[in-house]
From TrEMBL:
Protein origin, superkingdom: Eukaryota
Phylogenetic classification of the source organism: Eukaryota, Viridiplantae, Streptophyta, Embryophyta, Tracheophyta
Source organism per UniProt: Gossypium barbadense
Protein name from the UniProt record: Reverse transcriptase domain-containing protein
InterPro entries with a match to the protein in the record: Endo/exonu/phosph_ase_sf
Amino acid sequence: MEAFKEVLEELTLVDIKPTRGWFTWINNRDGNALVKERLDRLVMSSNSASIFPFIDAVVVRQTKSDHDTVLLDTLGKKPKEKRRDPRLAFRYNVCWAKDKREKEIIKNKWCRKDENTLEKIDGMHEILGPWQFKKYNKMKAQISVLAEHIDRIIDGPTTLFDMNNRIFQIAGDYFQNLFTSSIDYNDEVEMNYISMCVDQGINNMLVKDFTDEEILAAFNRMDPRKAPGIDGLSGVFFRENWKVVVKDILNFCHDFFKRLKRFCLYK
């Protein structure tokens, strides 16, 4: 082993550490006799490594061998190309809602008089995207390091016997809950309280314009954790910035329902 290390140093070879997987050999024993080692490695000259800045290595599990495969990808860490629609890459995060600087950015953007409501909503990703990248990119890197550390702990020495027992336990609990759960079905539906027809008074109530109070009630019932649409804005964005956006949102909703009503009458 010492001679091997001397060869690596003499040839200035560097070890390309894998980003997924770590151990490449297992002795296929049970209990305390189980041993995992990182025997197989991928080395490259330091000059060659500098030519490929996005080089990456991953360990691929093999079912018919006690040695796993180490794959080299020269473009593995290359950032993905920008999507055609930048809105698809933007998602409003709940943790931003209490940030004072974020609220100032939204207020300044929303108070512009030269844009309509849709343009303001559509432009949120343009101003919040760079802000969140600068503020939270370091946090994401720390999370990635912790996740990699957890993966290595999980990939550490363990007993095959305990792992099999855990799998059987999970499968058993699943089918136990599946076949013992009961649902109370009510096949008898009471229809007597439903009127046989819609009178004119009910019809007038159904077709009347929505009030500001009804729109506000609908927004208050909106789940702030609901998945955002193509604009990347979830319910928490509107709830946390309601004082800024309320006027434009109400006008937008009234205009939408009026257009919808005219369309339905025309059809």
